[in-house]
Write a structure and sequence with these properties.
NAD(P)H-dep_reductase; Rossmann fold; FMN binding; alpha/beta; globular; six-stranded parallel beta sheet; FMN; about 15% strand; Flavoprotein-like_sf; 7 helices; oxidoreductase activity; about 40% helix
Amino acid sequence: MKLLIVSGSQRTESQSAKVAHYLAKQSIEFEEVSHIELCRYDLPFWDGEQESKYAEASPWTMIGHKVKKADALILITPEWGGMASPLLKNFLLMCDNQDTAHKPALLVSVVSGISGAYPIAELRMNALKNNKLVALPDHLIIRNVTEVLNHSHEPVLAQDERERDLRQRIDYSLHMLHQYSQALATIRHRHEHEPYPKQQEYCYGM
């Protein structure tokens, strides 16, 4: 199983990328793990036309190939003004549902304070309709992110109960993501090789 982690911060050296690196190191059940930090690529703004994704010097060919190869995705967004990042939403608009349909996605919100629920709610409500990604029932909210996941190679101090609990929750979520990736692979195979009659008429969500 192949995992693709997408961090959607619009800043380099971001906390979202830090979380992505930690998740990548912990994703030991996956055979291959890739990470795309969207702010490091000059993606065109999605205008609804397929041609715009492949404009001269657009990196979408490379990014789209990684999406297609992946069996599961982790989508990481900072909370800005209670919203998911524009970069991540633009990425999701550009995804071809032939490459994303019926693949599991773990949603992760990163916030410097104690909120973080709004981006998850926004992604669940708006971001998965046409690409047909399957969001896991569980999600992660990394609150007070500057204070946690800073020493991935060191054991958490016994008295730091909050971070210990967070790391255990992360391990559980990654385990479940791997299980979903295995289970949904069967659905994707049947969707391709035993298609429902006229299934392309229903390629977009209602």
